[in-house]
Specification:
The protein is α+β, with helices and mostly antiparallel strands. About 65% of the residues lie in helices and about 10% in strands. The longest helix is centred in the middle third of the chain and has 34 residues, at about 125-155. This is KilA-N domain-containing protein.
């Protein structure tokens, strides 16, 4: 599970985690302040309507859902003798819509679709407030992601022109090399920096990350903020080394040493950690 976030709904702090690229809300937190909170989730799971809803959700989104075990639960659901825990539901049917986590910060989490249904069962008004707070959280996160993207784009572009100008002025013999081959020289220099910083060329990264490559992402798209800062610094450093006529091997060794030193230093800087 990813790092938790939280929203407050009618004085209840409800934790949210990212799982399989989706938001899961804590059902445990939703009932924590209610009487007999320890049996509420179990009572909800005993209902036939609940089992049918959960089963339909799993059939829509979970190719590994075990239908035979689900049908057994559906037959028994609603009877006085029927009981079901989140762990039993997940274990028997291979369900993905619920998560059960033990420990101090554990509890039962549900995909947002299921969590909203559970909230409506508790109280329709509570569901409305829950949706409102959840939407507010997503709007805030959307603005933060946009700001982060702008920062990453600015970092990536900081010394790009300095680097390409150095390649153009010193490494591309304009009178001898056909212009269609210029791109290969630029790519070779970009990969020299990739090797120094990431330990991989762009091609090697694509081969190791086929899903990201299919989405047209690159090795530099995967970089964190610290790596982008160092990337910008390496572009400036490589431009200086190119002008001073260092060999490719010498430039790689100096950039590799610089990358290791700078990353180590940046990751220890508390101000940048906050950034």
């Amino acid at each position: 599970m990813a790092k938790k976030r939280a929203i407050t709904v009618q004085d209840s702090v409800i934790n949210i985690v990212r799982h399989r690229e989706e938001d899961f809300l804590s059902l445990t937190d939703m009932v924590r302040n209610l009487p007999n909170s320890h049996i509420i989730i179990g009572n909800w799971l005993r209902r036939k309507d609940t089992i049918e809803f959960l089963g339909l959700w799993e059939q829509l989104y979970n190719a590994d859902f075990k239908l035979i075990d689900f049908e057994e639960f559906k037959i028994e659901a609603g009877t006085n003798r029927f009981t079901l825990s989140p762990q039993q539901w997940i274990g028997k049917t291979n369900a993905q819509g619920l998560l059960s986590k033990s420990g101090r910060y554990g509890g039962t989490f549900a995909h947002k679709d299921i969590a909203f249904e559970f909230a409506a069962w508790i109280n329709p008004g509570f569901k409305l407030y829950l949706i409102k707070e959840f939407q507010r959280l997503k709007e805030v996160e959307g603005r933060e992601r946009h700001a982060e993207w702008d920062l990453r784009r600015a970092l990536a572009a900081t010394n790009y022109r300095i680097h390409t100008d150095a390649v153009k002025d010193k490494l591309i013999p304009w009178a001898e090399v056909p212009q269609k081959n210029d791109v290969f020289i630029y790519a070779e220099e970009a990969d020299l920096i990739n090797l120094a910083l990431f330990g991989l060329t762009a091609k090697q990264w694509k081969e190791q990350h086929p899903e990201e490559a299919a989405r047209r992402l690159t090795i530099r798209d995967s970089a964190d903020t610290f790596q982008l800062i160092v990337l910008s610094n390496l572009e400036s450093l490589n431009a200086i080394l190119i002008h001073k006529d260092f060999s490719k091997k010498e430039r790689y060794e100096m950039m590799r040493e610089a990358a290791i030193t700078q990353l180590t230093s940046l990751r220890k800087t508390s101000a940048l950690q906050k950034l």
